[in-house]
Amino acid sequence: MNRPILYTKSFLAACFVLLFAFNGLCQNDNVRITAEETTKVKEEPKKHSPGKAMLLSTVLPGAGQVYNKKWWKVPIIYAGIGISIYAAIWNQEQYNIYASAFDIRNDGNEDTVDEFEGIYTDEQLIQIQNFYDKNRETSIIVAVGFYALNILDANVDAHLFEFDVSDDLSLKIEPAVLGFSPQMGMQNGVKVSLKF
Q1: Inter-CA distances, 97 with 104, 115, 120, 126, Å
Q2: What is the reported pLDDT for 13?
Q3: CA 90, 92, 96: angle at the middle one, nearest 5?
Q4: Is 18 a domain residue?
Q5: Contact call for residues 165 and 174 (beta carbons, < 8 A)
Q6: pLDDT at 54
Q7: What pLDDT, on the 0 to 100 scale, is given for residue 23?
Q8: CA 105 – CA 99 distance, rounded (Å)
Q9: What is the pLDDT of residue 143?
Q10: Is residue 144 a part of any domain in this protein?
């Protein structure tokens, strides 16, 4: 007999036996649930997970904010990351223009035309290249910063998701008796209570 067919038949037989064994275990006619028992069971409120919010924002920026029901933050995140990436690409293109102009000027070939001949010196072309290179790197750092802040914001918002900010916040200042001791007598003071 062919070995794969034998394995397949053995697997199906084992599944068949387990299915009937499981079915037999589940059938118990002696179990009764009363109305009092069903009312005693309370569902625990679903916890808002900071780990899940952080994971969602790591995989897809803004997804953690959606999970935290802070939809208005998503456009800010994408604008920050998108503008930073666009600035990095634009600065790279400008860097390439001036780097190729510097290479053309110094290649020793008379047939190549330098578009910045008479406009910039070699030193100025190098300074311009350094300027755009620095701006490109800064733009990349800003994009990574927005991405990291997106993850951090999702985590903090998830931690504060169930925090109740009620309109009934009050501060009371009133005189109070702090205690009595035989040596000091009656201790008076001020009691400050903050009600949430």
Answers
A1: 11, 10, 13, 12
A2: 59
A3: 120
A4: no
A5: no
A6: 95
A7: 47
A8: 10
A9: 97
A10: yes
User: How far apart, in Å, are the Cα atoms of 118 and each of 86, 105, 106, 108, 109?
Assistant: 31, 11, 14, 17, 17
Range of the domain at 72: 50-159
Q: How confident is the model at residue 24, as a pLDDT?
A: 46
Q: What is the CA radius of gyration of the chain?
A: 35
Domain membership of residue 72 (yes or no) is yes
* pLDDT value of residue 21: 45
Residue 58 to residue 71: CA distance in whole angstroms: 16
Number of compact structural domains in the chain: 1
3-state secondary structure of 25: helix
Burial of 27 (0-12, 13-18, 19+ CB in 10 A): exposed
Distance between CA atoms of residues 159 and 51, nearest Å: 9
Extract the residue ranges of the chain whose pLDDT is less than 50: 18-29
Q: Which helix (H) or strand (E) holds 170?
A: strand 170-181
In this structure, is residue 95 part of a structural domain? yes
Q: Is the distance from CB of 188 to CB of 102 less than 8 angstroms?
A: no
Angle, alpha carbons 145-66-158 (nearest 5°)? 75
Report the number of secondary-structure helices (H) and strands (E) in the chain.
6, 2
In this structure, what DSSP letter does residue 164 have? -
Rounded to 5 degrees, what angle do the CA atoms 24, 25, 29 make?
85
